[in-house]
């Protein structure tokens, strides 16, 4: 644990304390629960008011979560590795419990953008699925997936990749792009404030024979999601 505060620090003590706690959390120096406010105040030689203000800042950033009557806990954050897994598989691999809340499921003609991504003729039928993805009961992502009509008989209730695999249509590779955006109308369903940072993922997944089978655009909560890439 990080003990003691440098009195030569510039600026309010609570900001310095927040930075020290933030660094400790990111380095994995804390367990699931942080020490109580009194313990932090004594350890760092600051007032409990400074501790409360520092913790409030970290909670606003999504690094910690307060549970009434229980304490303050480091927020669990999913770290996605760069490999092709469905959302449910990835969450279970990380020790999180996935869940899906269907929002829309429609069989409609493909838009020009969808047709281009999936190698279809404009107007061919596609499934459009809009789903809220949850991890441990909390919103993680808003997902809008588009698939050729031949890929599914009906919208899946849970894992999309399991439904595809049951039809012998397991994706084996994907092209994905990622960028940061600000939450707009999707803020409410994701449980964040308008303007909060989100990660926008756009992916086209392919079958072993080269056919595109999935065009998905997702908005992930930046406070609950990070992507880990291994470069060689």
Automatic annotation (TrEMBL):
SMART domains: HTH_GNTR, UTRA. CDD domains: WHTH_GntR. Gene3D superfamilies: Chorismate lyase-like, Winged helix-like DNA-binding domain superfamily/Winged helix DNA-binding domain. SUPFAM superfamilies: Chorismate lyase-like, Winged helix' DNA-binding domain. The keyword RNA-binding does not apply. One of its GO terms (molecular function) is DNA binding. The keyword DNA-binding applies. Residues 11-77 form the HTH gntR-type domain. It comes from the Bacteria. This is GntR family transcriptional regulator. It comes from Thermus filiformis.
